């Protein structure tokens, strides 16, 4: 129905935006990956997936900064037990190339660390998508991707967020700063390093 929507950003949160296209406001659900890509911009072009809930038939729009992220979203929702909201949460937690690496390396722990993904679903994602993910993303997309332990990564980020809040920063701005620094400096792996980098970002 829609391939993409392009317009002014009328309202934005970390999980959804209102895109003004020709005077019509479209509410579009997004992942944190897309949020980071459009953060600070006054307008955006989002590649759209139009979804209708099979239970109450309520239509919902999902938007993505790239066609690659949309393709991965559609792959994830093809897995039994993975709904649109779970797929969005997965894409908020892991980049497409890291997701491909987790699948090809049989890293169930990466998926189990994501909210809403249990052991059975993690196994099913890997089993169902192992032969499909590289066809969609390209055969070498996961080459050279080093996956860290989700537990240590999440604990460092959690500790960093708590430290920033203790310093007086609100949760949402602190999360935005952490999103930016982890994207720009993926090698940061301790809470101290994350806090120092985030403070620089918050001071801009």
Tell me about this structure:
By secondary structure, the protein is α+β, with helices and mostly antiparallel strands. It folds into three domains: 4-64, OB fold (Dihydrolipoamide Acetyltransferase, E2P); 68-137, DNA polymerase, domain 1 (Orthogonal Bundle); 150-202, Helicase, Ruva Protein, domain 3 (Orthogonal Bundle). Helices cover 50% and strands 18% of the residues. It has helices at 32-38, 67-77, 84-93, 96-104, 108-112, 119-129, 133-137, 150-166, 171-184, 191-202; strands at 4-12, 16-21, 24-29, 43-52, 59-64. The protein has a five-stranded mixed barrel with strand order 1-2-3-5-4.
Q: What tags apply to this protein structure?
A:
five-stranded mixed barrel; 204 residues; 10 helices; OB fold (Dihydrolipoamide Acetyltransferase, E2P); Helicase, Ruva Protein, domain 3; DNA polymerase, domain 1; 3 domains
Briefly characterize the structure.
The chain is an alpha+beta fold and 204 residues long. Helix content is 50%, strand content 18%. The protein has ten helices and five strands.
The CATH homology group name of the largest domain = 5' to 3' exonuclease, C-terminal subdomain
The helix fraction, in percent, is 40-55%
For the record, give the distance between the C-alpha atoms at the N and C termini, rounded to a whole number: 41 Å
What are the secondary-structure elements, in order, as H or E? EEEHEEHHHHHHHHH
Could you tell me the mean pLDDT? Answer: 85
Lay out the secondary structure.
Blueprint (H helix, E strand, L loop, with lengths): L3 E9 L3 E6 L2 E6 L2 H7 L4 E10 L6 E6 L2 H11 L6 H10 L2 H9 L3 H5 L6 H11 L3 H5 L12 H17 L4 H14 L6 H12 L2
Parallel strand pairs: 3-5
Antiparallel strand pairs: 1-2, 1-4, 2-3, 4-5
Helix pairs in contact: 2-3, 8-9, 8-10, 9-10
């Amino acid at each position: 129905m829609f391939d993409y929507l392009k317009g002014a950003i009328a309202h934005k949160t970390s999980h959804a935006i209102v895109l003004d296209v020709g005077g019509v406001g479209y509410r579009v659900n997004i992942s944190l990956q897309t949020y980071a890509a459009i953060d600070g911009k006054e307008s955006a072009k989002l590649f759209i997936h139009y979804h209708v809930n099979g239970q109450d038939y309520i239509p919902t729009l999902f938007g993505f900064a790239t066609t690659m992220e949309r393709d991965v979203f559609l792959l994830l929702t093809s897995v039994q037990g993975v709904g649109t909201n779970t797929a969005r949460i997965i894409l908020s937690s892991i980049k497409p190339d890291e997701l491909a690496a987790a699948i090809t390396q049989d890293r169930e722990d990466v998926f189990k660390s994501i909210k809403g993904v249990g052991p059975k679903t993690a196994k099913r994602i890997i089993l169902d998508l192992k032969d499909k993910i590289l066809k969609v993303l390209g055969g070498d997309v996961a080459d050279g991707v080093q996956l860290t332990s989700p537990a240590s990564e999440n604990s460092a980020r959690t500790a960093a967020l708590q430290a920033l809040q203790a310093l007086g920063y609100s949760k949402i701005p602190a999360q935005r700063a952490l999103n930016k620094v982890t994207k720009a400096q993926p090698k940061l792996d301790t809470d101290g390093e994350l806090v120092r980098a985030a403070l620089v970002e918050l001071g801009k």
